Amino acid sequence: MSVHFAGTTALVTGASSGLGAEFARVLAARGADLVLVARRLDRLEALARELETRHGITARILGADLGEPAAWARVRAFTDAEGVRVSTLVNNAGFATYGVLAETDPGRADEEVRLNVGALTALTRLYLPDLMSEGRGALVNVASTAAFQPVPSMAVYGATKAYVRSFTAAVAWETRATGLRVTALCPGATRTEFFDVVGSEDAKVGRYQSAGQVVRRAMRALDARRTPPVVVSGVANRVGAVLGRLAPERLGLPLTEALMGR
């Protein structure tokens, strides 16, 4: 049975494109009002107009760079000022750097950790009491198949996503009696702007999925009687995730390095 979100509000970060925009479309189709957060305000405005016209929902937008810690509290201040109570939170904002760590720009690596880990953790903490009290929404933290093993050439990204997977599984356990559905979504290669930001498709492993396929997998997890704390999108990716967790690092690291094009 599909969960309906009518009468609730969902906050989606990184909502200007890719998985974030797809989550916004699916949640709006299920009746949720939206708070859309991203850096590119023009894209948010266009998406908000589209979804309000198509589904008759209310979509509020906030332009914010969540790689800056000051923006985390600003998101909460915005929803408070708008009188919005958030029932569903989708922490989708994030990016990756590609290359050996010694050659990675230190500022860019720091921003990667602030966005992928800091913003996700802060927003989860800021909204979790509301999510728990509502008990009819969801917390979706977007991780990656990179979360299941160390990733040479994407060392920072893989570590941030391992954090997201571990963090979300713990929060799912802590909130298990509240009715809140909590999951870490772990997609593999997805046709979004992800690799444009990375700057190379050498980091791609396996076949592409569409953003629609990934979000549909997440929604099936939320619709389940018991939402799994971690969900991997794609059969081949699920096999790879299992192997990544079981293989000794001395065997897994050379293979992962080869898959990364190094």
Automatic annotation (TrEMBL):
It comes from the Bacteria. This is NADP-dependent 3-hydroxy acid dehydrogenase YdfG. NADP-dependent dehydrogenase with broad substrate specificity acting on 3-hydroxy acids. Catalyzes the NADP-dependent oxidation of L-allo-threonine to L-2-amino-3-keto-butyrate, which is spontaneously decarboxylated into aminoacetone. Also acts on D-threonine, L-serine, D-serine, D-3-hydroxyisobutyrate, L-3-hydroxyisobutyrate, D-glycerate and L-glycerate. Able to catalyze the reduction of the malonic semialdehyde to 3-hydroxypropionic acid. Gene3D superfamilies: NAD(P)-binding Rossmann-like Domain. PROSITE patterns: ADH_SHORT. InterPro entries: NAD(P)-bd_dom_sf, Sc_DH/Rdtase_CS, SDR_fam. Belongs to the short-chain dehydrogenases/reductases (SDR) family. Its EC number is 1.1.1.298, 1.1.1.381. SUPFAM superfamilies: NAD(P)-binding Rossmann-fold domains. Transmembrane segments: none annotated. Keywords: Oxidoreductase. It is an enzyme of class 1 (oxidoreductase).
